[in-house]
Design a protein that fits this description.
two-stranded antiparallel sheet
Amino acid sequence: MREDPTPVAGFREPVSLLVDCDTGIDDALALAYLCSQPHVELVAVSCTPGNVAAEQVARNNLSLLELCGRPEVPVAIGARAPLRIPLVTTPETHGPHGIGYAELPEPRGKVNGRDAVELWVDAARARPGELTALLTAPLTNFALALRAEPRLPELLRGAVIMGGSYYYQGNTTPTSEWNTHVDPHAAAEVFAAFSGLPEDRLPVVCALETTERIEMKPEHVAALAVEAGCTEPELVLPDQPEGRRSTASNELVRHVSDMVRFYFEFHRRHDHGYVAHIHDYFAASVAAGTVGFRTRTATVHVETAAPRLIGTTVADFRGLWGEPPNARIVSENHPGEAFAELVRSLGGLGRRLGNRYDRNAPEAS
């Protein structure tokens, strides 16, 4: 992870990631972006229920990995519900299948037969100090992994969490962010597990106050299409009919466009403008070490009892509670840099992949 605002040099240090997501439009963009990065090894992708149920998350992940040229990455399911409260999903935000208007090809691969928690724990034990956890979903699976292996914070190279909001309006209730709201008990267990560790072992937390700055707009979609080599401009505009489908000549661009149009329309209905907050892409770029950022060390509390405040996250930056820190919360990021990186890298992947795959053709023997 690159905890500074300086430009990326030509060489990028190899990164090995364990990814946990609830795919989700912004999760999908994050996963596609990681597939575009040659220096990123995707060790496993685990599926947590959140934006959609776990089985749909798995289907989305399998399809995306195949679409983006990474079909060998194992996809596993762990929990089917939060630790202690009923599951809530968000079809109004991400569409009934979690990916907006996109209709991804039916995956050829299958979900890994092992439980996601077992897969994560075994990978961390086999490669101590090598793997970084990227968590863009409710923290259910990670909490279960910590129960199974309490040494996980020491075994991992690092952890990046998308979640929470700190002295900032929530996006699910007035005070809570979606991932933390879905499973506050898991989030509380995760932060407790890191309490008192050295600062460089604490998770990097990408919360709403910085992820909502990563605001995708129609011009970013247009630039992505140009970078991918599309033959016609890709226009996703506010005056077009809702639900319009992309006819982009590039397959990856076409699916991304159909995803984000749904997200633009959702944000406009909630008075954010014709934009999309792609929270999870920012967390992915932090984990990949491809964008600059700064953090502040804090002690995080997650509310799990008060009905109106459940899922609320509070950060003690000044040590007033007298408790050891358990997080490094991102306090500065650079949206212009983040979108230049996304367009260049994801567009480059689209150009490389093109439409060369006939997904109805038989697999090579």
